[in-house]
Design a protein that fits this description.
This protein has 855 residues and is of the alpha/beta class. It is 15% helix and 19% strand. The chain is built from ten helices and 49 strands.
Length: 855
């Protein structure tokens, strides 16, 4: 199954939202019709009140206070019919509904009930509706309680989102009056026999999403025995092979969801026999070939989702589905030309996603699209070279993504009028020319605007007040930032790699929700506003500008900060002590500034730090060993995994003195170590060979002495080594890895007159003088010893771009989903840092500056 392109995530979210809306509507349609009315006037039965209180005793956690109103008669409300989540019959007072479903998916841990489902519910013999969804009620066994099958009056049961495991109990088949059953997303649940479903003859809605049904041979046979079933959800059920022929017999289904399985082969023509369908979801499978032309027979179809497959053709018959509101076919292998004929009868169309295919969209500028069209995603198809003029007639559009579609044109004059109601506009990766419309500020509905990677010129105009995400990096914009850049709702701002000049406006401090700010690679100057920084800031990249002055103390308020990248500026003064307060910091880049003084000892507080670059400043440290040992001793008091966080250290080109402590070898997760061009003395740590992940080591231009540790030959991943211009002596260790490195980097031992033995031409026993190396920065082979740093520049720029993109995509995913992607991003971030180390090595291979040798 292929991974989704992040650019499609917001539209996919819209599809998911639409699906949820449809499910909610379906739920309403299939709710049991009871005559209980409101709870006013109803008085609960004492033994049922006792049963509810016994259920509460099984709840060990209630962070949202859901059950606060459930009290003993002597301590609160006696009438349990007035308790939260309880509904009683107005006629006889019996509890008919217990609705404790947790709807706050985005803050699950803050609102979910914790504990177990008590058997006391069996006393609620008249209960028809039970909803415990998305709570943590798995109990001690973690299994779905079998006793629930004894609630024979239930017509509605929703256990979705409870993290159960094990087999789905067949006893659920005893609830013969069930009309609605939702067992979706329960964790590691499975079923090897679903014949118990055949007893549920009144079942209208069945959702088994994520229940493993891989051993079920012919599930359609069982489904066919449910005469009332209209909605079937089997997403993510590990179904494999070809789509069974018996699926074609499910002609009474209104909703069929087989997404996120592993079905293969072509979509069969019998799909057209499912004539009652209003929603068909076959996405995230491995279907191949054409979408069958028989689709035209499903005349009532409203939503068709075949995205994330390997389909190659979209038939023109799709245009006959006059009731279709949503067409999702992204991330396939669709080829050919799409014209207005494909939409000839799609008068109800609201959402269309054909992104990430090989399609050519050729729609006449005179074509009038459906009046209700709101979402259009043609990203990564071929739409250009002209800006699609027919879009000016889509007056209700809310979401438009025409990124990377080959447009080589100016932004049209009608842009701000036609898209005045849009909330999301993405046009990055084209060749858009000219200026950003001066009146874009009037687009009050706009929240997300992506214009990166184009050829736009001129100044950035004042922006819409409700903008949340703005990315216009990698263009040719000039002039100062707009005075109103500090928008109150702004969360992501990226204007990197332009020609922006002037100061950072003080208004930026009004963006109290700003998470990501990327201004790198411009011509900005002056000091940062004294009010700069906020508690939500995660990512801050101001590198490669001309900012100056001291770092504002207000920045210490950004305690959530993970990336601080200020390299290549003119910041000065001492490194502030408050940097040690930024305890979530992973990436600290302050190289190529004018910082001076000691390195703050409280840098040892940064236990999450993975990347440290303080190179090319005026820093000095008389006892670097103490600082590094302090960090290592601190690490020793916490789990070993924390030590593995540090992956890159670059302190090159400063005035640091002292010895490199032996304890540095305990940083066994380190990928790159650069301490070059300082005043380090003493020996190279003898256990450096235990740092098995090291890929790059540069200790050149110091005052190191003694022999090269033999353990260095153990570093099998080492791709770059430079020990030149020290006072090293003795025989060079042997090893295939070191021999290979010398072939690629023949200067790596230069400037150490006391070294001898292969691969040098000096015999250790002969006392012969080493070969003359000439000028300090050149070897016999004509390589400048500083070439590594040129390669490093390319690697450094690439790394910041990767990290920036990673966080920007992280923020864009937040537009699409209500749940956090923090854990996923954590893994991606570590991967980016690993890639950075590899980029360094590639920089040494590709960034070579050759100087003709003296004649």
């Amino acid at each position: 199954m292929r991974r989704s392109d992040p650019r499609s995530m917001p539209l996919l979210a819209a599809a998911i939202a639409g699906s949820f809306l449809l499910i909610i509507t379906t739920n309403a349609l299939h709710q049991p019709k009871t005559n209980d009315g409101a709870n006013f006037g109803a008085t609960c039965i004492p033994h049922e009140r006792d049963a509810l209180l016994a259920f509460k005793q099984g709840i060990t956690g209630d962070p949202a206070g859901i059950l606060d109103s459930w009290q003993q008669p002597d301590g609160g409300e006696q009438n349990c019919c007035r308790w939260r989540g309880v509904r009683c019959s107005k006629r006889n007072g019996h509890v008919q509904k217990l609705g404790l479903g947790n709807s706050n998916y985005s803050i699950y841990s803050h609102t979910a009930l914790v504990g177990q489902i008590s058997r006391s519910l069996l006393a609620l013999e008249h209960m028809q509706h039970l909803d415990l969804s998305y709570n943590n009620l798995r109990g001690r066994t973690g299994h779905i309680p079998e006793f629930l099958g004894s609630l024979k009056n239930l017509v509605y049961l929703n256990l979705s989102g409870i993290n159960f495991n094990g087999s789905v109990p067949p006893q659920l088949g005893n609830m013969t009056r069930l009309q609605y059953l939702d067992l979706s997303y329960m964790g590691a649940t499975y079923s090897t026999d679903v014949l118990w479903l055949t007893h549920l003859s009144f079942l209208h809605y069945l959702n088994l999403d994520s229940v493993n049904l891989s051993t079920i041979v012919d599930w359609p046979h069982v489904v066919n025995m449910l005469p009332s079933l209209t909605a079937l959800h089997l997403s993510g059920c590990s179904l494999t092979g070809m789509l069974p022929d018996s699926v074609g017999q499910l002609s009474s289904l209104v909703i069929l969801d087989l997404s996120q399985n592993s079905y293969t082969g072509p979509l069969p023509e019998f799909i057209g026999s499912l004539t009652s369908l209003s929603r068909l979801n076959l996405s995230w499978n491995n279907f191949t070939g054409h979408l069958p032309a028989s689709i035209r027979y499903i005349t009532g179809l409203k939503i068709l989702d075949v995205s994330h497959n390997n389909l190659t053709r979209l038939p023109p018959e799709i245009g006959t589905l006059s009731n279709l509101t949503g067409l999702y076919a992204s991330h396939n292998l669709l080829d050919g030309v799409i014209t207005e004929k494909h939409f000839r009868s799609l008068n109800s169309l609201q959402n269309i996603d054909l992104s990430s295919n090989f399609l050519k969209i050729r729609i006449s500028s005179r074509w009038k699209p459906p009046t209700g069209l709101q979402i259009v995603d043609f990203a990564n198809c071929k739409v250009g070279p002209l800006f699609p003029a027919w879009l000016q007639w889509v007056v209700d559009i809310r979401y438009l993504d025409i990124s990377n579609v080959g447009i080589d044109d100016w932004i049209p004059d009608w842009f701000t009028i036609a898209f005045s109601n849009a909330t999301y506009l993405s046009m990055w990766g084209n060749q858009l020319k000219g200026r950003v419309p001066a009146n874009i500020e009037t687009m009050s509905s706009l929240k997300v605007l992506y214009l990166a990677n184009n050829t736009l010129t001129g100044q950035i105009p004042n922006l819409p007040q409700n903008l949340i995400y703005f990315d216009i990096c990698v263009n040719s914009l000039s002039g100062p930032l707009p005075a109103n850049i500090g928008l109150p709702k702004l969360e992501v701002l990226s204007v990197a790699s332009n020609h922006i000049t002037g100061h950072l406006p003080r208004s930026i401090c009004r963006s109290g929700r700003l998470r990501t700010l990327v201004l790198a690679n411009n011509h900005l100057e002056g000091g940062l506003p004294k009010c700069f920084g906020n508690k939500f800031m995660l990512f801050l990249d101001l590198s490669n500008n001309s900012f100056s002055g001291k770092l504002p103390p207000s920045l210490q308020n950004s305690e959530m900060l993970q990336v601080l990248q200020f390299s290549r500026n003119m910041f000065s003064g001492r490194l502030p002590e408050w940097i040690g307060k930024l305890k979530r910091l992973r990436f600290l880049g302050l190289s190529k500034n004018m910082f001076s003084g000691n390195i703050p000892i409280n840098l040892t507080n940064l236990q999450c730090l993975q990347y440290l670059d303080l190179s090319e400043n005026e820093l000095y440290e008389r006892n670097f060993s103490t600082i590094l040992k302090g960090q290592l001793l601190f690490y020793d008091s916490i789990p070993r995994i924390i030590r593995l966080n540090m992956t890159i250290i670059d302190l090159s080109s400063n005035d640091i003195t002292g010895e490199i402590p032996e304890e540095i070898a305990t940083l066994d997760g380190l990928l790159s170590l650069n301490l070059s061009r300082n005043h380090f003395s003493g020996n190279i740590p003898s256990k450096i060979g235990s740092m098995q992940l090291l890929e790059s080591v540069d200790l050149s231009s110091n005052k190191l002495s003694g022999e090269i540790p033999t353990s260095l030959s153990n570093l099998t991943f080492l791709g770059y080594l430079d020990l030149s211009y020290n006072n090293l002596t003795g025989a060079i260790p042997s090893g295939s890895q070191l021999d290979t490195l010398y072939t690629e980097c023949p200067y790596m031992y230069s400037g150490n007159n006391g070294l001898c033995g292969p691969p040098l031409n000096k015999n250790c026993s002969s006392g012969a003088e080493p070969t003359e190396q000439g000028h300090f920065t050149r070897t016999e082979e004509g390589y400048w010893s500083g070439f590594f740093y040129i390669g490093l520049e390319y690697g450094f720029v690439a790394s910041i771009f990767l990290v920036s993109c990673a966080l920007l995509f992280r923020e864009r995913w937040r537009v699409a989903y209500f749940q956090s992607f923090d854990k996923l991003f954590d893994k991606a971030y570590v991967l980016v840092v690993v890639i950075w180390a590899r980029v360094i090595r590639k920089g040494t291979e590709n960034g070579v500056l050759r100087i003709a040798p003296d004649s």
